[in-house]
């Protein structure tokens, strides 16, 4: 499974668990307008670290604003390492 | 001197205002008006639970009750009814102030007052005595602990400090003003400025738009609040001159992100806790604090690191716990914050909590409470809950679980299903931030010679 679909699956799973209405995941979707709260994002990052084995935020220069930024952050980390 | 006296000092009139998403109230409205509908006198000398959901109405009631009530217990939004009844009993409450048409008192009390949303004209007599301010913090069993301050300890970080109280400042905070961090901002605003309050459930971009429209110069929140602001893409809509972080460890990542988002602002991270009060503020943009501060008195606060955790002695320390056998201060009169420190490159860095308390986005989680729920699951023999570092919330809850019967190797489906089942039990019994983000099944957990679980230090 590629990074993007792993991330999308994790967003959907956490939204279900947290009983939150998740907006359609497009690259332009602003994370804070996705329907998820801060705790949901914390869970997503923790779960992705389990699945993918890394947390790209540790070396990130900036915080992602859109879903596209979020995916690129993980993809670029996967390429570099 | 009461809070009202401090606002209307030197015979002057209070000049500030409080606003939220729907209204602005000038403090002069309290000169000959009250939000307590002429019933302020019925609260005189009583131990009052202040349980008004609305932050603005609660702020006005705090001003009115200081000097009138014997004791005032500040209940933030979202405290569960079973906890408010524990709080009321512990505080020996004999009066209750709720919002208009709001939840009735969760224990029987002789006096119940419904506060109005805005002051109504009526004759008032202010002051008369001293008031204990009681703040809530999370306890091991999930029930809050009650921490006693007085007005002097709450004001000690800035009262009488001219550079902290420059008139005309407009403050705002992501915090609830009934929590220590938010209350500090409310009091600063009352003594020399105005305040724009956050609203529960308000999206971060909308709040930041109000912050911009309200001309906020000083904005405060936890690192988690600030990460949300930066991630919203809306941070640049406002231009505060001063940005403050407190309540959690400020790492270099969020300090750098705020420096980039607000190039002209002073970015300060402060150390404060409900029990220890405000300790110090660091303005050099770097995580941690200088090693040279250890053992010294900085800004009137004695800082001790000799036991590996941060201990503080200052006029800002709370006085005691209510109804708790625990002592708030140690034998030297210091408050042990329980925050562990590590010396790196000339600075002390915060590396987690002694006793394993986990700070999830500013909310404390006691591992034992989560372990008790996991251990109640029939398939679980024992568990160990600890903090896992997280870039969004500072930390999340992680659980290592030993099963009664290990899942057969390679049977991923059985493992996943059991994990979901344990998580469902946690969601049923615990607040969302206490539910483990990850569960690992492990063959065993390390025990000490005395038969206790060995807890990781951070």
Walkthrough of the structure:
The complex is a heterodimer of chains A (81) and B (458). With 81 residues, chain A is mainly alpha-helical. In chain A, 54% of the residues lie in helices and 0% in strands. Chain A is globular. With 458 residues, chain B is an alpha/beta fold. Chain B contains ten helices and 28 strands. In chain B, α7 (223-231) crosses α8 (252-261). At the A-B interface, α2 of A face α7 and α8 of B.
Helix content of chain B: 10-25%
Identify the overall geometry of chain A: globular
Radius of gyration of chain B: 23 Å
Helix/strand/pairing class of chain B, anyone? alpha/beta
Oligomer class: heterodimer
Question: At the first level of CATH, what is the class of the largest domain in chain B?
Answer: Alpha Beta
Into which percentage range does the β-strand content of chain B fall? 25-35%
Over the alpha carbons, how many angstroms does the gyration radius of chain A reach? 12 Å
Strand content of chain A: under 5%
How far is the N terminus from the C terminus of chain A? Answer: 18 Å
Assigned CATH class of chain A: Mainly Alpha
Total of helices of chain B: 10
Rounded to the nearest angstrom, the distance between the terminal CA atoms of chain B is 43 Å
Q: Look at the helices and sheets of chain A and give the structural class.
A: mainly alpha
Q: Count of DSSP helices of chain A?
A: 3
